[in-house]
Amino acid sequence: MREALQLYYTSSRLGLGGGAGFQIRATSPGIDPADARMIVERSAYRRPFTDNEPQGVVDYDTVFPVAFRFYPLPSGRFGLTRVSYAGEDYSGRSGNLFAHTLVVEAAPGEEVWPADLFDHSHWKRSLDPGEDARAPEPLPPVLIRSRGGFTAAQLGRFLKGRKGRPERLRHMVRAILLAADTGRTLVLRDGDTERMQWIACLHRCFPHTIAWTLPFSSYEFEAMGSPLITGTVERTGFSFGETERSYEHVMIDEIRGLHSESPIGEKERNAAAYADLVVGLLLDDAHRLDDFYAFATSFGVTEAGPALCTVGALFSFSLGQAAAALHPRLPELAGFALRHRQSENWDWMAGYLGPSLNAWAAGGSFDDKLLAAQFAAACASGGGDAFANAWRTLVLAAMEREGGAAALESAERTLDAELHGAGRRKAEAVLQPAFIDTLVERIPHARLEGAMLAIAVIAQSLGAAGRAPAHDEPEYVQLVSAVVGKPGSVPAVLSALLRDAHDAAAVSAVCRIAQDLDDTLLPTIGEALADRLARTANDDAIRSRLPDHLILAEWRALIGRARAPADAYFGHRHAVIDRLASARRSPFDEELHRDLLAWLAPRLDKAALRSLAIDLLKRREFRHLPEVWRSRALDAFNAELRLDTSNGRELSWLVEEAALCGHTLRPDWPRLHRLLDAARAAPAGNPDALAAAVSDAMGDIAATVDGDYHRIVTVLLGSAAFREAHDHVAVVRILFVPDRAPALMQAYGQWIGGLRRAPGRLGDIAAAWIEDDPTAGSDACLLWPKVCRELAAALVRLDTAGHDMAVRQLTGPVGHRRSRAVEQRKADLRQAVEDINNSLGGLVRGKMNSLKMAARRALGLLPSK
Fold it and tell me: Are strands 21-27 and 249-253 parallel, antiparallel or unpaired?
């Protein structure tokens, strides 16, 4: 028995409203005011349409429907209201009603459904005669039964009493389960007795804790304000037309058969499966229905919806009902079970679902296999063989799918959170010899990504098992060998393996395994190393610990892919090999270097071979070249020997190194170097010795290429020994050879043009050329016109101040000599200046005019200032 508070609502002369009319007539103490307002709202009543007011009726319940209403109250309690038509009120007006409400605590008693509470003897149908003339008194609480009401047997007999009722109850159950998605309420039209039995049947199809969340009314006149489950009769505001049946409500019409259709989609199928379960049990096995409610209550499901459908499916699965049909829902059921592993039914669910889930996952997706592994990890056994098998299956599935590495990594995080010590268990599972053999068999048919994933899993498992470093372990070697042996994918495999190798030992191990598998793979290994070892501090540290033959393989690969092999050789030599030798304090293996040079030399053109010879001579490694290529390199070196060093000690090394290898450098090259060294060291005022040396070396000088010739001329003209203008003229005359005149004048023009910052010396040199003895030297007539042009060009380029200084130097000595030759040379220089000025085409004025005036004054065309 359970205590309930009472409230009367009707049209009365005296009530709690303080006047006459519809009001709360009386109430039990303790009802919350907000609850009282809600009760008043739910106490409204409108009778069905009638032609006339019934006359002489003693019991209106036999004429008009009684409304039994169940609903939640703001306080958390529940209202149970009986509303009936009461005829005339105290004033003689028709349309009165009487509502008696019981206020109960939530879910009174265990396994009590709200509909059962309406079956008791305390309902009051109207005020007693004369009661309305007295002031209201507080209503005492009443005791109501916590059990009784509609029994499962009674409801079963009701359903079987008319054909089609079980199917229509299933339809109602589906409507309630889908109401949150569809927004459609259930409207039931039937007789007065039947409507309440329908509602009792419908409530009994849900656990009692959920039934208390399903408000109902056995009679409503119209849809506005009607609860989730609504009963009605004919001649009301419900038309049961097409629009109402298809869109606004789910309607069951037992009077005229106007039922709503029941579409079947995925959600509808799940709801239908639940409806089939509970209606079937209500009809045929009420005790098992109680078992289901106890089962459902343990999961803490609090509302009619998808979760309850899943619980129903789990219970059906345990019964073996429609197991094949439930198989597609196994992932959903297992996921639900995992989320409720704290339930007292976990061991039961694991026992039923585990084997079926493993069988299902074997042919399912990667996510299905992950769920099976997760389920196995969560089992009370802590994993066991089921977990090991599930993890191995998951690894194989990841090998076959795109993005398998990322998927498996995510799966590992899930499993690690699920099972303590999952890393060790996973390692034990995959390091079994039988599974290693399975991986080796799968690798030739797997994608490269999958094969690399298998290696990564084994390496990680070896680490978890305390067997690091992995590359020394036979399982790792076996798998790497299988992957490297994968047809047509060796370069990509090696690149991927080396990319994942994070230290020198791992890099060396991968290369060693590949070489042991096939000793012809060294060039391919070199290509992979060239891709792996970028020039960063970390990778230099790795390279410094690699054996020389692997460093050579990388070096050769870099040279082989370069457009300029010599540049690649030199670049890697300077940037990597030399630094490694310094760090190791030992030179690179000589025999390996010889092999590299023997491979490189045939790939070089003449210029590159010459550059290689110079580098090897400087490094005293010229003997590393094969004999045939040493001869060719020196031929190329001697043919285009450049005066590209001023270091006499280095020159002696080159000569010495060539001699050690049985070769001689071009003999004129050392002589020319000695001449240039003497020119740089010669003191001022002693030109004769250096001039004699230049004269002796003219054969060598004239035979040099333009670049060297230009360098020789520049060094000699800049020597302090030829500082005096007449000595300068003398050495130029010595250097002049008709065949090399263009090169001489090019070098001379550049040198004398550099005297813009020394205009006085330019004037001295010009004066020396003008008064030079034209008979000195048989080639003077060929030399002067060329020198004249260069002098004129230098004079024109001077600024005004420079011209003034040049003029003073030029007019001084020239003014004392008036020979015909001097006058002719002055005229030549004057004409050269005019020609240059005319070639300017008037593009400059002002400053250029002043320069021209200075030049003319210097040449005697204008009087001196």
Answer: unpaired
Q: Provide the 10 A C-beta neighbour count for residue 425.
A: 19
Which of 48, 43, 90 lies closest to 69 in space, CA to CA?
Answer: 43
CB distance 86 to 10 below 8 Å: yes
Strands 21-27 and 67-72: unpaired
Would you tell me how many other CB atoms lie within 10 Å of the CB of residue 494? 26
Q: Calculate ∠ Cα 525-529-530, nearest 5°.
A: 120
Q: Which residues pair with 82 in a beta bridge?
A: 68, 100
Give dist(CA 204, CA 162) in Å, integer: 19
99-113, 150-164, 170-184, 726-740: least confident range: 99-113
Burial 429-456 (b: 16+ CB within 10 A, else e): bbbeeebbebbbebbeebeebbbbbbbb
Helix (H, G, I), strand (E, B) or coil at 99: strand
CB count within 10 Å of CB 776 equals 10
3-state secondary structure at position 562: coil
Q: Which two tokens stand for residue 51?
A: 């032609």
Q: Is 160 within 8 Å of 258 (Cβ atoms)?
A: no
Angle value at C-alpha 537, between 531 and 540, nearest 5 degrees:
55
| pLDDT above 50: residue 861 | no
Over residues 31-46, mean pLDDT: 96
pTM of the entire predicted model: 0.58
Give the separation between CA 308 and CA 177, rounded to whole angstroms: 9
Give 864's pLDDT tier (boundaries 50, 70, 90).
Answer: very low
Q: Which amino acid is present at 247? A: Y
Residue 850 has pLDDT above 60, yes or no: no
Q: Is the distance from CB of 171 to CB of 259 less than 8 angstroms? A: yes
Give burial (CB, 10 Å; 0-12/13-18/19+) of 386.
Answer: buried
**Contacts for 311 with CB less than 8 Å, ≥ 6 apart:** 295, 296, 299, 301, 336
| Tokens linked to 212 | 């208390």
CA–CA separation, 146 and 114 (whole Å): 10
pLDDT tens track for 275-302? 999 999 999 888 899 889 888 888 888 8
Residues 6+ apart with CB under 8 A from 115: 70, 149, 150, 196, 199, 200, 203, 204, 216
Whole-number Cα distances in Å, 788 to 824, 851, 859: 12, 17, 13
Average pLDDT of span 743-755: 85
What is the DSSP annotation of 420-440? TTHHHHHHHHHTSHHHHHHHH
Question: How many Å separate Cα 406 from the centre of its chain?
Answer: 11
Contacts of 750 (CB under 8 A, 6+ apart): 714
Q: Is 12 helix (H, G, I), strand (E, B) or coil?
A: strand
Whole-number pLDDT of residue 657:
67
Counts for the chain of helices (H) and strands (E), in that order:
41, 10
CA-CA-CA-CA torsion sign (214, 218, 224, 229): positive
Alpha-carbon distance of 374 to 359, in angstroms, equals 15
Whole-angstrom distance, CA of residue 140 vs CA of residue 131: 16
Strand, helix or coil at 144? strand
Mean pLDDT calculated for residue range 336-351: 79
Residue pLDDT, tens place only, 611-623:
888 788 778 787 8
Q: How far apart are CA 46 and CA 224, in angstroms?
A: 12
Per-residue pLDDT of 617-648, as tens digits, reads: 778 787 888 878 877 777 766 665 566 544 44
Convert 603-649 into a string of H (helix), E (strand) and C (coil): HCCHHHHHHHHHHHHHCCCHHHCCHHHHHHHHHHHHHCCCCCCCCHH
**Structure token pair of residue 202:** 């419908």
